[in-house]
Amino acid sequence: MNDVFSNTIKELLRKPIRTGVNVFGYFLCCAFITIVALFLRFDLQAKDAVVKYMGGKFLIYSPVRKDGAPQAKTAKTPMSEGFFTEPMVNTHLMPVSLVKEIAAIDEVKAVTPFLLFRIKQGQDGHVFSLGGIKIEDKYALKSTMVSEADIIKGVFFNPNDRNVVVIDKSYADLWNLKPGSVVNVADALYPVIGVVSSHARTARADIYMNWEDAKIAINKRLTVPLGDEANIFLVASNGGEYNAVAMKKSRELLEGNLSANAVNCSLHIVDFMGLSKDTLNYVLMAACILVFLFSANSQWSLVSEKRHEIAILKAIGWKNNVIFGQIVLGSVLQSALGGALGAVVGVAVFPFCAAMLKIPFNAQYEFLNMPSLFAWVFVGIVVIAIVSALVPAFKAVRTSPADVLRN
Q: Which residue from 48, 97, 203, 208 has the least number of CB within 10 angstroms?
């Protein structure tokens, strides 16, 4: 084995130009595969982040049906006020205790109750929506509703904040409100401490309050006070692909006296994500085929060029397994050197390529697992080199010294 290795090294050094060209070819192939894989994986992760944000959440509510049971707790002026969900669907109240049952569903990541109530302002008669949120459910709120990250002016609620509100930007722009302004909610004045952006949400309100403050404000407008109840549950699933199952299981919890409709607020891009994953696989497969063709051509040319040398070696007594091993080992060494350099350079060059193409690069994406990427590319190149060297190596050991030397 030592003789095979030493002879292979000598043979590679004996023709440095050919060896350098082969190593450089593996280097280019490996660098290209690494950069393309990073670009495609980066694109896939960015899309996946959008899917998880937009597609991995939904809301559960119990709609008031014309032929169903009347609401147990109604507004004093039901024509203009009441519990609802968009688009203007009147809803029943449900026990908050359902949160634990919904959270126990395997496909559900987080859940929080939500009070959404339509109120008619007494001074000028305009109607706005009031949302009551549990500030302590930080993760569920961040995934489905509002959080500190959505603040564009002022500050978000602290857990102990009472008698203050945060308002949606569209409502703030309509009434020229800002942090420090005061709003009238159910005939009581509340200072505005923050303004949140008006992006797409599972559900939304014009004015947000601490859960207890919202109950106090809403109770002023009801015939019967609220208990431990909510009219909406905001649910974050484990991803857009789990939404259908999570919604089905959530509905099943409400069988009996209550019915439930789960509204999927996701973009219809789960299938598109699958298409993107297929694209990544196809591109990498095509790149591997190109590397294989390059390696096979290189080894075939080498064996054809050295046919006289191989014939002489066999004539003087070299064994077939030594010749076979030397050819395969030479391919492995060249591919290993070129592959290692290519993977390292590809990883190092990728951020600069992204900057040139003006692609926002976030080093925190989990796909940037450099050791794993390096290992896969390196091992892949070496395996391809071994496979591509087998046929030329078999051809070499089947060479007849007499026929080659005679010609």
A: 97
